[in-house]
């Protein structure tokens, strides 16, 4: 009898112990606020995207999603912070092709390995690029500009916002596909680069649609082509580069959601599915058209991995061909 009482006592204690930890063990993810680290200053297109995305994700996840702006070092400060964060699903990163693709190939000193340290869960939006020209250039199409430039090899200039920037790389990709010989003039930011274009110090620029669109609308510069696979609703009469005689051409910057690579699969799936539900909301998609952001159709993990791999291959070829390295 004494043995039976001891056995019952141990069994009861075990049951009580399991009951005490069961709520914690079975708690649904997430059960506390989630942080979204954004490697840009407040106010820009990427920041606006992150804040609306965070608000919608809060509803989907049932927990606050708090935006933390961490700009600096061309997104590398924020990326390094997230790479070293606890991989529990509670720290997200607003990833981009700058942080996940270009920086690891461009910079000789970098504190994270994008492929080893991160898993990109979703590509949320593409920021299309537009090929713009000075109004004095006697060309209204990209094909006409190419013909014009080929009669003046080395005599025309293109503007960019800096060496190794996605806009410079996109122009070098365009040069290689069209066979034109134009010189690179880097500027410290979009405003001086566009000013040089309007002043005819430079004759061509590949720019993000959001900064060039107002100047195109005001007829201060002209749009020759867009770099997307399809025409843009904000510039419906401007053909794509592919339509302009260079099939298969495509270039865009992109923003997505990434987590530390060691984040458990279940938490990663929960986050990925929540982001996909937000991306599918019609008003979310429409909200960013005026900023030139194209919200993507949700992709599964295999499709996302393939998208990032193709982006690495595309830009890696440009970087190697032009021997671009940054300190």
Automatic annotation (TrEMBL):
Q: Name the domain of life this protein comes from.
A: Bacteria
Keywords recorded for this protein, A-Z: Signal
Q: Which Pfam families match?
A: TctC
Q: Does the keyword Methyltransferase apply?
A: no
What is the annotated signal peptide range for this record?
A: 1-27
- On whether Signal is a keyword of this UniProt record, the answer is yes
Residues that span the membrane, as ranges: none
Which family does the UniProt entry place this protein in?
A: Belongs to the UPF0065 (bug) family.
By what name is this protein known? ABC transporter substrate-binding protein
Q: What is the lineage of its organism?
A: Bacteria, Pseudomonadati, Pseudomonadota, Betaproteobacteria, Burkholderiales
């Amino acid at each position: 009898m004494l043995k039976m009482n001891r056995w019952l006592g141990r069994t009861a204690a075990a049951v009580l112990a399991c009951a005490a930890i069961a709520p914690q063990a079975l708690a649904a993810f997430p059960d506390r606020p989630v942080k979204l680290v954004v490697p840009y200053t407040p106010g820009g297109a990427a920041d606006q995207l992150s804040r609306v995305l965070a608000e919608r994700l809060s509803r989907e996840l049932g927990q606050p999603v708090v935006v933390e702006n961490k700009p600096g070092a061309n997104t590398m400060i924020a990326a390094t912070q997230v790479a070293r964060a606890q991989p529990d699903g509670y720290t997200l990163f607003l990833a981009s092709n700058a942080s996940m693709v270009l920086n690891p190939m461009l910079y000789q000193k970098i504190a994270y390995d994008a492929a080893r340290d991160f898993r990109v869960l979703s590509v949320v939006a593409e920021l299309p690029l537009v090929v713009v020209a000075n109004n004095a250039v006697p060309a209204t199409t990209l094909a006409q500009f190419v013909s014009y430039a080929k009669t003046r090899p080395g005599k025309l200039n293109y503007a960019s916002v800096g060496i190794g920037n996605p806009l410079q790389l996109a122009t070098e990709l365009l040069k290689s596909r069209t066979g034109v010989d134009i010189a690179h003039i880097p500027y410290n930011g979009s405003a001086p680069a566009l000013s040089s274009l309007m002043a005819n110090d430079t004759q061509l620029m590949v720019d993000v649609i959001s900064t060039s669109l107002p100047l195109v609308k005001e007829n201060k510069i002209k749009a020759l082509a867009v770099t997307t696979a399809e025409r843009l609703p904000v510039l419906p009469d401007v053909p794509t580069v592919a339509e302009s005689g260079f099939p298969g051409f495509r270039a865009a910057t992109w923003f997505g959601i990434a987590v530390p690579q060691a984040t458990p699969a279940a938490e990663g799936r929960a986050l990925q599915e929540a982001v996909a539900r937000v991306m599918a909301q019609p008003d979310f998609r429409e909200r960013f058209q005026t900023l030139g952001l194209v919200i993507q159709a949700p992709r599964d993990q295999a499709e996302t991995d393939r998208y990032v791999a193709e982006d690495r291959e595309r830009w890696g070829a440009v970087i190697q061909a032009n021997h671009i390295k940054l300190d």
